[in-house]
């Protein structure tokens, strides 16, 4: 009798208000990517350039929410991913982008596009395709339910691998000392 | 009761801990090499009992172990899922009330708040962040005050008042409005007699009182809590002695 082939897991990844550092750290799992693609295939991700997330088993979110588009993408991931994981400091607590939170958005935009040195005749971009910035940067757990968190700036490849392999094996993810870092 | 002091013991998570008349639960536990998570307690100072991270169950009643004196035969529970869960919630509230951005903090890796959060397996801050506006005070030529990281443990207040005899710091306000202030008309550290030789300059368990021009001197991997978790690391105050 032929053993039925187990369908591969689907994983989607995205970077919201992040720097792609967590994705770079994900690539630090190096040749274990080959082990991973034996078990899983990528849906929406910078690896595939798929633009919209379909039904997935695991979603990895890097970055917090700094504009309206980030919120739409996050909700799309939540609607499609059975397990949603916040990856890195920005997704978990806003991180570096949230350092603007004590300033008004008007102050920030004026400083960047008007008053900084060498910006004579500058203007605040207003193309309708540009997503509108939020008045403050927010961690993603403030908007949707997040199932697991991988802290770090960025989390190490080892930490990401540990959580992914735990999830794939059906274990509760657990980061021991050294893998759990806030910096 | 204390005539034969050596014979008095209590049970901490099933282990027998000897204690003397002067010791509180956490002091006796620490002397016996046992770790009870804590932030505002420092073995060099009189206990303050404010952060509540050191809460234990003593004969079934929850109490701050830094201020509670043990009794002979007392059954104390500390490392239980329920108490650690409450400690985790307290830590998460501390994280969202301030601005604790570890990647840019020079105290990262040496910070007791961060290390205690690791110990309690804090994967996220859970609550909504306050993102308070707390300007830093960089007025002093040698030291920087970053109030964003203050957890109101009052160790600098106690050190300045009890050891240095200066009263440079104080906690002002009530409840959620409590904040650390500097004792000068201008409110600036530069306008006080604060000095780097003060005890107060070296007791902050987080990254509020920072010596300038030091930066990230110790590389990641060699900082206090990189190799061993805080539960296996002697308290910084004990390590210095």
Short structural summary:
The complex is a heterodimer of chains A (183) and B (241). With 183 residues, chain A is α/β, with parallel strands linked by helices.
Can you give keywords for this protein?
heterodimer, A: 183 residues, alpha/beta, Rossmann fold, five-stranded parallel sheet, two-stranded antiparallel sheet, 6 helices, 7 strands, B: alpha+beta, Ubiquitin-like (UB roll), 2 domains, five-stranded mixed sheet, 21% helix, globular
Report on this structure.
Chain A has 183 residues and is of the alpha/beta class. Helix content of chain A is 31%, strand content 20%. Chain A is built from 6 helices and 7 strands; from the N terminus they run βααβββαβααββα. In chain A, the strands form 2 sheets. Chain A has a 5-stranded parallel beta sheet, with helices on both faces. Chain A has a two-stranded antiparallel ribbon with strand order 4-6. Chain B folds into 2 domains: 5-79, Roll (Ubiquitin-like (UB roll)); 84-217, Alpha-Beta Plaits (2-Layer Sandwich). Chain B contains 6 helices and 9 strands, in the order ββαβββααβαβββαα. Chain B has helices spanning 25-31, 81-97, 112-119, 155-163, 224-227, 236-240, and strands at residues 9-12, 15-18, 55-58, 61-64, 75-77, 143-145, 169-172, 179-182, 209-211. In chain B, the strands form 3 sheets. A 5-stranded mixed beta sheet of chain B has the order 2-1-5-3-4, with no helix packed on it. In chain B, strands 6-9 form a two-stranded antiparallel ribbon. The mean pLDDT of chain B is 94. Chain A binds chain B through residues 86, 89, 92-96, 98-99, 101-102, 136, 138-139, 141-142, 146, 148-151, 153, 175, 177-178, 180-183, and chain B through 95, 100-105, 108-109, 114, 117-118, 121, 123-126, 128-129, 131-134, 220, 226, 228-229.
